[in-house]
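Take a look at this chain, tokens included, and explain the fold to me:
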Amino acid sequence: MNFETLLFNKEGFMFVRENKNKYKLDFSISNKGIIIENIINFNLIKLIYDLNPDVYEYVNINQQNENEAIITLLMKHFFEDLGLPQRFSYMAMKKYKEDNKIIFHSQSIRDHRPENMPNESELMNMKDLICVCNMITQHKIIFEVNVVFNENMVIPPFAEKIIGMILHKIFKRVKQFIENVRI
């Protein structure tokens, strides 16, 4: 059953629920002063987190090689007053290139808990997180991010719009940073 719902749409950033536990976000970045493909790597992933210290409490990117990394993130405890647990992500991420696309594919690591996570925090259990970076020109890229949570991961409807606002803030900062880079 498909019941796509627009959750957030502002300034070229769109966040949609495609199905239960399946979400999609789209946005683009352009900068005529740089070849954007050259910055689509794990350093860009780190930049996303570094530009958003009000969203992430802890970030660790353990790059295994040029195309693989283990990423540990602890989100700020946004919904503590509502009795919801603090969430962390613990993911194996792979990067690969296909035609005019750079793709990051991540899945939650479930077989053990990373160090430094508070005991009461819970894994943001992702079956798949796929970020497709479509290279439109050397200077423009369109991001399509698909997130599928495991069936046991419950996101309350009231939290979806708040999550959309947080994601918009994150990617707006990254977009502004990249679009203002001058080399």
